[in-house]
Specification:
globular, Pyrimidine Nucleoside Phosphorylase, Chain A, domain 2, Transferase, Pyrimidine Nucleoside Phosphorylase, Chain A, domain 3, single chain, 430 residues, alpha/beta, four-stranded antiparallel β-sheet, Aldehyde Oxidoreductase, domain 3, 17 helices
Length: 430
């Protein structure tokens, strides 16, 4: 291990055999954390080339169990988001795409920090089971066309160990390490084709377009090199997606979107990502046809019907679709300080506000309150008058209220003139 640390520190290139040995020995506990931390720092500064990154990805994917989805009909297309605020796309996309006949078998995680997790959102639904064994997982997909389950600890365990170490050694934001982390889980999860939603902006991990594009290109290249059709869509996360930030609030917003009544930006992103999924899955010739198919499924009610059946099969009570979900009882408005136009809405600050109320967690294993969160009443480009509500806070027992209110007040920028509205879809990399 000493030799590999020095080799990478000095800019050398690691062979397939060296990377394979490194991952296997680390998972077995033969390589101590202090040596792996030194190696990760060498990678942070020296990088990995395309072949090294692909090799690392495959070794991480093979470090535990792989899910076999070959028994499912058609091409199984997975969607992955690099994380953001108000990102409810999986809850909308999974049943919507499944309604087209394309199977959706997805493993998702929990939220951490200011970013929400799909598993936490689904657990807002009374009775919904987010831990399925492989047999239940596949049976659910066959029965209703869609299943979402929490990620198994046996899936790419090397990634879990490496990420925990990166998190405490200042080596998280390395593009080859991020790319191999994401793609190793996608490959281990059995994805046959992959659509990546790479977020860019204040509320995203990648703050600028250049670094986001580099990450997207790296992941698309990994997919290509291992025979997986992969598309990356770069999307803006300067302001939150949709209007709801918080678990139950986001589930209700997903239902509204499936009805055709959701926020325009959330609906547009789901149409774009879903259309790419249909193209990769062979259900549509191009993105335009994919969008038309999805719009027809929404208008005809098939998308919402699939959502209800999916909830029921995974143990949830679909009556909430009409009756609502329990939300925190206290509601506090954040008023506009003066007349003007919303010219900025910092997604990171909004995410932190929701987390302060109890919607997120600071550490893995922390409990979350599904009923709290933030409902945005105004977004970029909206005209406001002094005293009008910019946002509404759903809180319980006053927990985190003052901090959340302060963060929301700081998140909004109100100017005299309307700004140019930010584009949502920034770039597509195939």
């Amino acid at each position: 291990m000493y030799d590999l640390i020095v080799k990478k520190r000095d800019g050398g290139r690691l062979s397939e055999a060296e990377i394979g040995w490194l991952i296997r020995e680390y998972v077995k506990g033969e390589i101590p954390d202090y040596q792996m931390a030194a190696f990760l720092m060498a990678v942070y500064f020296r990088g990995l080339d395309g072949e090294e990154t692909t090799c690392l990805t495959l070794e991480m994917a093979d470090s535990g169990e792989r899910v076999d989805l070959s028994s499912l009909p058609g091409v199984v297309v997975d969607k992955h988001s690099t994380g953001g605020v108000g990102d409810t796309t999986t809850l909308v996309l999974a049943p919507w795409v499944a309604a087209s006949g394309l199977p959706v078998a997805k493993m998702s995680g929990r939220g951490l920090g200011h970013t929400g997790g799909t598993v936490d959102k689904l657990e807002s639904i009374p009775g919904f089971r987010t831990q399925l064994d492989q047999e239940e997982f596949l049976r659910t997909v066959r029965e209703v066309g869609v299943a979402v389950t929490g990620q198994s600890p046996n899936l790419a365990p090397a990634d879990g160990k490496l990420y925990a170490l990166r998190d405490v050694t200042g080596t998280v934001d390395s593009i080859p390490l991020i790319a191999s982390s994401i793609m190793s889980k996608k490959l281990a999860g059995g994805a046959q084709a992959i659509v990546l939603d790479v977020k860019v902006g204040a509320g995203a991990f990648m703050k600028d377009l250049t670094s986001a594009r580099a990450l997207a290109e790296t992941m698309v290249e990994i997919g290509r090199s291992v025979g997986r059709s992969t598309v990356a869509v770069l999307t803006s996360m300067d302001q939150p997606l949709g209007n709801a930030v918080g678990n139950a609030l986001e589930v209700l917003e997903a239902v509204a979107t499936l009805r055709g009544e959701g926020p325009a930006d959330l609906a547009e992103l789901c149409l774009e990502l879903g259309a790419h999924m249909l193209v990769l899955g062979g259900r549509a010739e191009d993105v335009l046809e994919g969008r038309k198919i999805l719009q027809e499924l929404q208008r005809g009610g098939q998308a919402l019907d699939t959502f209800k059946r999916w909830v029921a099969v995974q143990g949830g009570d679909p009556s909430f679709v009409d009756e609502g979900l329990p939300l925190a009882p206290e509601r506090v408005e954040v008023p506009a300080p003066h007349d003007g136009v919303v010219s900025g809405l910092n997604a990171l600050a909004v995410g932190r506000a929701a987390a302060a109320l109890g919607a997120g967690r600071a550490r893995k294993g922390d409990p979350v309150d599904h009923g709290v969160g933030v409902l945005l009443r105004r977004k970029v480009g909206d005209v406001v008058e002094e005293g009008e509500p910019l946002a509404e806070l759903y809180c319980r027992g006053g927990r985190g209220l003052e901090e959340a209110r302060r963060l929301l007040e700081e998140a909004y920028t109100i100017a005299e003139e309307a700004p140019s509205k930010p584009g949502l879809i920034l770039e597509v990399i195939r």
